[in-house]
Write a structure and sequence with these properties.
Elements lengths: L25 E12 L2 H9 L7 H14 L1 H4 L8 E11 L4 E12 L4 H19 L7 E11 L6 E2 L5
Antiparallel strand pairs: 1-3, 1-4, 2-3, 4-5
Helix pairs in contact: 2-4
Length: about 160
């Protein structure tokens, strides 16, 4: 198998936006995750809606969805993708002091939606941090990662299969 080619670099090594014009439109789905580690007391306040800034989970979910839609504005060389859906789930384990975030981005397009899912997951985690920092500045955003992707020329990929 040949060494993978860096598609965002031209022959001279300069950054470029990949031309996807000749690619077929296919259904693309990507799932990304992130986590926020915090004290159990803070997690309890989060779940009970007792944080000074209000309903942090609803706010963070909306922030993640909005961020996915703005990915090309945030990440250089990303294409504008016609997202057909973005879902963000936040699961809080109070005793463990952990918020687990899962973001799913879906589109029928010529390029994947991995970056949209990753931006949604990370922005959700950052928003949760922002909403909890009045109570706990030491919370930690961690483990932002792609979990799976389907569709496209390279086919499906799932974490654990080759990493």
């Amino acid at each position: 198998m040949s060494e993978p080619r860096l598609t965002h670099l031209d022959e001279a090594g300069h950054a470029r936006m990949v031309d996807v014009g000749d690619k077929d439109t296919t259904r693309r789905v990507a799932v990304a995750s992130a986590a926020l580690r915090l004290r159990p007391e803070t997690a309890r306040m989060l779940v009970e809606g007792r944080l000074p800034k209000g309903d942090a989970i609803a706010t963070a979910r909306i922030a993640g969805i909005m961020a996915a839609k703005r990915t090309p504005d945030l990440i250089p060389l990303c294409h504008v993708v016609s997202l057909s859906g973005v879902e963000v789930e936040v699961d809080v384990d109070v005793e463990a002091g952990r918020c687990s975030i899962t973001a799913t981005a879906t589109a029928a397009d010529r390029t994947g939606v991995e970056m949209e899912a990753l931006v949604a997951a990370s922005t959700t985690a950052l928003t949760l941090y922002d909403m909890t920092k009045a109570v706990e500045r030491g919370a930690v955003v961690e483990h932002v990662q792609l979990e799976s992707k389907t569709g496209g020329v390279r086919g499906d990929w799932h974490r654990g299969e080759d990493s």
